Amino acid sequence: MSITIRVNGTPQQLEVDPEMPLLWVLRDVLGLTGTKYGCGEALCGACTVHLNGQVVRSCVTPVRRAAGADVVTIEGLSPNAEHPLQKAWVELGVPQCGFCQAGQLMTAAALLKKHPRPTDEQIDQSMAGNLCRCGTYTRIRDAIKRAAGGRQ
Amino acid sequence: MSASPLLIPRRSFLRALNLTVGGIALGYYFPVEAQRPTNEPGKPAAPKPVAGSQAVEARAPGLNPNVFIHVGPDGTVTIVCHRSEMGQGIRSSLPVLIADELGADMAHVTIVQGDGDKAYGDQNTDGSNSIRGIYEDMRRVGATARVMLIAAAAQRWSVRAEDCVALDHTVTHRPTGRTLGFGELALAAGKLKVPPAREVVLRPVSELPHLGKPLPLLDAPAYVSGKAVYGADIRLPGMLTAVIARPPAVGGKVARFDGTRALAVPGVRKVIEVPAPKPPYGFQPWGGVAVVADNTWAAMRGRAALNVTWDEGPNAGYDSDAYRQVLAKAVSVAGRVARKVGDTESALKSAARIVEAEYHVPHLPHMQMEPVVAVAHVDGDRCEVWAPTQNPQAAQTEVARVLGTTPEKVRVHVTFLGGGFGRKSKADFCSEAAFLSRRLGGPVRVQFTREDDVRHDYVNAVSANRLTAGLDANGRVVAWRHRTAFPSISSTFGGKGTPGNDDLQQGVLDLALAVPNVTAEIGEAEAHTRIGWLRSVYNIFQGFAIGSFVDEIANAKSADPRDVWLEIIGPPRKMSLSDLGVERLPNYGQPLEQHPVDAGRLRNVIERVTRAAGWDQRRQRGRALGLAAHRSFLSYTAVVASVVKRANGTIGVEDVWMSFDAGTVVNSDRVRAQLEGAVIFGMSLAMYGGITMKRGAIQQDNFRGGGRIVRINEAPRRTTLDLVESTAAPGGVGEPGVPPVAPAIANAIFALTGTRIRELPLINSLSV
Amino acid sequence: MPPVPDNQLRAVTDFSVIADTKARSQALFVEASRVFLHPRCANCHPDGDVPAQGMEMISHQPPVTRGPDNHGVVGMECAGCHQDRNLAQARVPGAPDWHLAPREMAWVGKTPHQICEQLKDLKRNGGKSLEAIVEHNARDKALVAWGWSPGHDREPAPGTQEQLGAIVAAWVQTGAECPREEVRR
Lengths: 152, 768, 185
What we know:
The structure holds three protein chains of three kinds. By secondary structure, chain A is of the alpha+beta class. Chain A has helices at 22-29, 84-91, 101-114, 120-127, 137-148; strands at 2-7, 10-15, 48-51, 54-57, 70-72. Chain A folds into two domains: 2-76, Beta-grasp domain (Ubiquitin-like (UB roll), Roll), CATH 3.10.20.30; 84-147, [2Fe-2S]-binding domain (DNA polymerase, domain 1). In chain A, strand 3 and strand 4 (54-57) form a beta hairpin. In chain A, helix 2 (84-91) crosses helix 5 and helix 3 packs across helix 4 (120-127). The longest helix of chain A has 14 residues, at 101-114. Chain A is globular. In chain B, a hairpin with a 4-residue loop joins strand 6 (170-173) and strand 7 (178-181). The longest helix of chain B has 23 residues, at 135-157. The relative contact order of chain B is 0.11. Chain B is an alpha+beta fold. In chain C, strand 1 and strand 2 (58-59) form a beta hairpin. By secondary structure, chain C is mostly helical. Chain C has seven helices and two strands, in the order H-H-E-E-H-H-H-H-H. Chain C has a two-stranded antiparallel sheet with strand order 1-2. Chains in contact: A-B, A-C, B-C. Chains A and B meet through helix 1, helix 2, helix 3, helix 4 and helix 5 of A and helix 6, helix 8 and helix 18 of B.
């Protein structure tokens, strides 16, 4: 079955099982490996992408749900890691192993779009679905606030 | 004159100008333009020239004094990072140390990830060892190149080498001010004889410009843009993906299987049985049935469609509830003595008061974010492997064994690791990929699902610890007996389940005690699953038991826990083996003379952390503090945790203070990051973590229940770190932050609620 | 009335033994409340901002919260994880437009009497007439229907949707009487 999705601005026509999770379409079919597989059950957030601007866990999102829609992955968040969040992440040395960070950034980007100056509570509530085993949470909070501080 | 020094944090510039950025005190901020992505290890690394071969010289002209460094005529310095990057920031630390020793400017340094190769020496990225174990050796690597560049310059100028210095990518003749860049000297230096290591003199530490500073995370741009290549990101033409159904219990095997429905799933190519390994299991494949497909999803669906009947095997009777009782029994009787000072039994008999408690910590899972995965491509008697491995040489050995070839014919490329914590030192996932690649005749990726990763983990040992203290009429601790039982890691490799004396070096034998009568005894234990090691290993449960017990002694005699710690540790002193009452102390592989059991350093972190936490004002409404300390991996850590009862009735950790002494550190920012992470890691195992076994099988399967880990909304509001500045030899960093966290939390909970919890995870006893 | 297994609903005809219409109406509602208070339904009718999960009704993991319009907060929207149907492999339950019942439709910790009053109150039931309530219970194809097809190994609500529909219709027909406050089952 043929499905067309616009991924990071580029239309992709795909011949895939409509039930194949978007994660595996992105990774195995399109070769966009920035989005990660961490749990397969929407528990960890490593697979987070934007579907028509909304955060979804791509590991449980069947690709048919993205038919005719816009998908943005970490590769499409900004052209050269210039998103204020990406810059803040680098400045504060947020990542350790880095595996969860694409998901963290995609969720944080959606958060800042809706709440440009989020409170501590809003940050914790919105980011709670993104696990980090290395424990970079303190720096994630700081980096979100730094990016929200308005530095461009 | 070099390009602007990219690694100097803006802070030091601005401090000179008396400015801050946006009014925020700069902790660890770096100018963005300072970050250059380093080589991504997924691509084929440029072959690192080996010293002394003319043919190789022609290919890569320049200076090749050893396998770690190359200086090219264009001035590029290539440094091989031969340890795996799993979040500890080794790629941003070790190469900088080498560059400093060499005198190179990081702006002209390219970092290459080393493949598995004996020539690099030990590549096992484990045991918090990648700085402390090779600090001088790696400095010598850089110093050797420096000496040769200086020699080449001295020759060119006909001056004395002693009058030349190498700094900022340039050799300068001090008396005349003449300079030559490293690039200009590389060819000439490359023709010189490489001096023997013992003749190479290291710089004074004061000449290492970046030592101990907060250094930029060089791979951060790759991480934040999705460009960093991890194990599952490797894509090869014709690569198939395998998802394997493995026996639920270790030692189990396939009784029969039917792959018909699996083969009917679109994309599935083959269903192959993986033979069951014979003990000792080591890093062998787990056995089972592999479904091999065009893509990961098809392989997962195919595996779900398999029909497999298991022969449960010899460990089918392994039940964690029952085993808890077995261990409790083991520590209820006298065991084999591993540490002895004085006469503990008599002292306990005549003690005015006895304090006794028993602690249980379950098996613990790794739960690293990246499930294990490996790609292997067998071609004749050779094999190429790409894997997020902590130990590429172990992967070479295991793959060679599976294929019946030699390790030299196995090339192992190390990708970025999405977390390791010890799981990825084990080469099982590499050996499985190699087995299937040979069967299929092309590249195969073995992808563990998250469920596979949890259910087929090398779990940290389950343990029981029974501590008994005797107090005299004045309340002084005069006797200390520690009985411990846990299945040892050796059992996975053919050794006994009952721990050896050396296993107690982690927290039991190296505990500084001034108590006149001390005994540590080992109880019997058998292993019924693959026991492995998890970030700080046995120190987790030894630290929990000891850290809680000191608090219990304090409570029993209505004393301040900090005072009891200081009382039992005794005065500042370096303890000999006979002081400790032990016959030998492996001391994490390093000489006792260089890394003594230093009571003063343990006291120091306790004093500092309690001061920082306002310990003397610890009794406050609505919150309580708990303290614990531990020596591990040659570093000293003390933690104070503050807990509160939240409006919804759950207990939360609001604040954590940690005082940490690792001697000399290379990259203070990554040290801080490791400690911040260790707090969360310790919280997770304290509050939620726990593997349960039924019929020999792990019951957990994902980030829930016993696999649950702390989320951002549960993280402490504040984590305050105190790094003790020290010129002592480097101690470990990656692991020592973990052990005192759980007991500090449990102690704080006792102070808050009056409930003493002696078994982890805490969630089994109260709402957290 | 004779006992019935936990996973079954009584038939409407079973209630004809109750002669008094008002009493019969009340009893019918109590029967319906066995569905409403079953964790499969009550988990998403919390008396607060956090749904529950599982038969033990523990706090939903990952931690989610109601948000401004019952669909979760940014980054943790219900539909970020829950799809339009149950997922077999991922175990995540799904139905079209997965979301929390509004706060005024909270059932957890409520008595059948309180739920009954709530259900009849136009200000708290989304402006539904009694006929609309019957329709909603009997024929909604999304979240209501899901209660009986929860997927994976989740225990469904008692009986069937058809049976519940009949009970609610009979309740309305007999005057939509609310049980007394102290009645539980």
